[in-house]
Amino acid sequence: MSDQPAASTPATSEEDVFEQKRVRLEKRDKLNAGAALGGGAYPVSVPVTTTIPAVRAEWGHLEETPGTESGATVGVAGRVVFQRNTGKLCFASLQAGDGTRIQAMVSLAEVGEESLAQYKELTDLGDHLFISGEVISSRRGELSIMVTSWQVAAKALAPLPNMYIELNEETKVRQRYLDLIQREQARTNVVTRARTMSSLRQTFAERNYLEVETPMLQTMHGGASARPFVTHSNAFDTELYLRIAPELYLKRAVVGGLDRVFEINRNFRNEGADSTHSPEFAMLEAYESYTDYNGIADLTQDLIQNAALAANVGSDREGTHVVKWADGTLFDLGGNWDRISMYGTLSEAAGREITPATSVADLQAIADAEGVEVHLANHGKLVEELWEHFVKDGLTKPTFVMDFPVETSPLTRHHRSIEGVVEKWDLYIRGFELATGYSELVDPVVQRERFTQQAAEAARGDVEAMGVDEDFLRALEHGMPPAGGMGMGMDRLLMALTGLGIRETILFPLVK
């Protein structure tokens, strides 16, 4: 039965949908008016005794012997995704939230003439239906419930899309609930994300980190170079910013003696949206006292590899770091990941030596020759843009790109042995940046100088530059221990684990 198409496919034209809604509204009214039909179209509860997945787990073996009876009576509920009504025997497929299905058989012999007639008249595809009866194997060998009683658990007024025709991309994003009903990959994405978040928290717990929460509404935007969303507080009659990063508050926590802290929460950046960027996104940031960017790179590798293990639970790759992307590609996140030099790889790719001492004029000449445009160019921005032009797209396997220009990293400690460079890395996987890590700048005097430089950049028209955060500087003046910190996009982590674009990894992405 489950391999056959639906007896009637819901219409898709606006006219037909309107007519279906009109008919379903009439059925809703009849359900609400019929006291004998339980709690109406939307009862407070139904007497479920188990779940569809649990019934399959316990009685799935019956399918090996068609026509078998279990002698066990259960009460389950699910969404009707298939329906075939015949004379004395009606069939339906009920689907649980995880996509597991079971067949319902509603017969004249078991429910009686009146109940069967009401079932045919009042139920539709898309309804949530409660059924009670014996678990059996049908003559075709399909695990089923021979219904002795039924009740509408929630009446669907809008028809489902055809369950056998995949939704277009626009509908998948705008009506994710339909995507979750219809498509296994959509449901799998949610499960993988939940397992990933649980794994990250477990890894942190094993390392004695504390999970904290910091403000999303801030009086100054900082912690990253990005354009913020601006709002207004009526209560305080002041302009506020949706945070672009939690960094400066997490560092305040470290100053206060919380030596290992992390936060997983939302960030907001008023910038473009594409396959790897979303204006609203989930971010992990973590800070650990008495380590540096090498130690924090080790932590990041462990976090991601443990997440891969969690994502593989129940698959044929369980216990490995090899993830399977949605297109079937196998991608290995195991082993120790390469750590390469930004300046060294840029020099090799450009065919000439580029160092922190290379002049802006020389870098601009290379950019002009390559057709690379750099807004408000300085040494650091030119180096990073040229590196992305020459090197980035060739990085497929996980790679830490080490040691960035000082001009683009205002919150990062000077490199301990290379002048003009800071101890920062970016982690690239699949050609996109997944995470970034620092040896944190904890000297309040140098930090003030960096903030002042940023303010100058803002005055030149750089809308992403930070201002001088006096309250954060005041915190640093009370002494912050040596520390390493990192930030990682959760949506991008899911991209690395699943091979999907960012709009697939976010359950409800922002759309225009």
TrEMBL record:
UniProt domain Aminoacyl-transfer RNA synthetases class-II family profile: residue ranges: 198-509
Free-text remark on how the cofactor is bound: Binds 3 Mg(2+) ions per subunit.
EC numbers on record: 6.1.1.6
GO biological process, one term: lysyl-tRNA aminoacylation
Binding site for Mg(2+) 2: 433
Keyword Ribonucleoprotein: no
Catalyses which reaction(s): tRNA(Lys) + L-lysine + ATP = L-lysyl-tRNA(Lys) + AMP + diphosphate
Signal peptide: none
Annotated Mg(2+) 1 binding sites: 426, 433
Keywords: Aminoacyl-tRNA synthetase, ATP-binding, Cytoplasm, Ligase, Magnesium, Metal-binding, Nucleotide-binding, Protein biosynthesis
Region (Disordered): 1-20
GO terms under cellular component: cytosol
Compositional bias per record (Polar residues), positions renumbered to this chain: 1-12
Major location (coarse): cytoplasm
Localization per Swiss-Prot or TrEMBL: Cytoplasm
Entry GO MF terms: ATP binding; lysine-tRNA ligase activity; magnesium ion binding; tRNA binding
Record note on quaternary structure: Homodimer.
HAMAP family given in the database record: Lys_tRNA_synth_class2
Similarity comment: Belongs to the class-II aminoacyl-tRNA synthetase family.
Protein name: Lysine--tRNA ligase
Organism: Leucobacter exalbidus
Gene: lysS
